[in-house]
Amino acid sequence: MNHDIETRLAALAGLIREAELLRARRAELGGRLAHQEEALGELRERWAGEVRDVERLESLSLSRVLAALRGAQAEELSRERAEADLARYRLAEGESRLAAIQAERQTVEARLTELADLPARFAAAVDDKERHLREQGGPQLARLLTLAEERGRVEAELRELHEAAGAAEVALRALGEVRRQLDLASGRQTADNLLGGALSVGQPNWLDGVAWAAAHADRCLAVLHTELTDVGLARPLGTLPRAIAPATGFSQVFFSNMIIRDQLTQAIRAVDASAQLVAGVRQDVAQRTEATRGRWHVLQQERQRLLTT
Question: How many CB atoms lie within 10 A of CB 88?
């Protein structure tokens, strides 16, 4: 009977800890969701404005006639189309980020629904605890039940730290892929310079790989931030550059090779800095995990002593 109550209270203590974190995560996701929805509205307005500019140039109008007379119509239309493509890409990126936040919030809500009866279950366990103490008495039993609750919380914290460590590893791999794509883009841009831009003509934008890798790494960093918040280790993890990675195929038209090279250099520095921050976080999580395991072993040793005396 003692073991049954102890096991039950330990499990419930872990679930209570999980529910507390889920409620905090739900509030944090609500804030992120509102911010992203606001940003998405601005992106939609920007894209709509760029589309109107394209339609204006494509339609028969005085401005089109004047542009043609100046010999600048084709160049201006290409520029406006590229800017519209870039705005649409940014909008799609924002929509993807919003969908990810919404999906995470739905998962949190579903789990909280599963734990909705937790207060009643815990109250019932407490009633059983009180009844058993009245029947059996003894300071050892009371301490055993207290240890069970403490151990449940410590075990829940260990699970959270394990999730944070896993998220840090995933984020580091994602940042490594961004760095690899940046190195490839840097080499490609150097070759493009030597060949006078020949690689750019009629070819897919060789910066797209950077954009896709950076978007994935950005999502991984968001997950890591959430996991770190759960264990009280949240901190800035750096900012990944986006401006050099428009997936439109037109970047060579608007950025000189020197500007692109500078942007690539800045991006490499930013990614390296973010990777260094994540590596530091991973070390902190490992230290915290070791300390928490130490607390768990202390609780377990005391429990064993009480059970064998």
Answer: 17
- Reported as a single tens digit per residue, the pLDDT across 137-173 is 666 677 777 888 888 889 889 999 999 999 999 999 9
Nearest CA among 167, 240, 168, 244 for reference residue 205: 244
Least confident residue range of 145-159, 187-201, 219-233: 187-201
Give the integer Cα–Cα distance in Å for 98 and 31.
Answer: 12
Signed CA dihedral, 260, 265, 266, 268: sign only? positive
Residue 257 has pLDDT above 90, yes or no: no
- Residue in this structure with the two tokens 């394209």, named with its chain if needed: 54
Give me the helix-helix angle, 62-70 and 73-114, nearest 10°. Answer: 120
* Residues 83/49, Cβ–Cβ less than 8 Å: no
Residue 235, token pair as written in the block: 């901190």
Given a contact cutoff of 8 angstroms between Cβ atoms, the answer to whether 239 and 198 are in contact is: no
Q: What DSSP string runs through the chain? A: -HHHHHHHHHHHHHHHHHHHHHHHHHHHHHHHHHHHHHHHHHHHHHHHHHHHHHHHHHS--HHHHHHHHHT-HHHHHHHHHHHHHHHHHHHHHHHHHHHHHHHHHHHHHHHHHHTTTHHHHHHHHHHHHHHHHHHH--HHHHHHHHHHHHHHHHHHHHHHHHHHHHHHHHHHHHHHHHHHHHHHHHHHHHHHHHTTTTTTTTS--TTHHHHHHHHHHHHHHHHHHHHHHHTT----------TT--TTS-HHHHS-HHHHHHHHHHHHHHHHHHHHHHHHHHHHHHHHHHHHHHHHHHHHHHHHHHHH-
Give the type of residue at 45. Answer: E
Length of the chain: 309
Amino acid at 124: A
- Which of 235, 246, 220, 221 lies closest to 284, judged by CA? 235
Q: What is the pLDDT of residue 246?
A: 38
234 or 126, which is more confident? 234
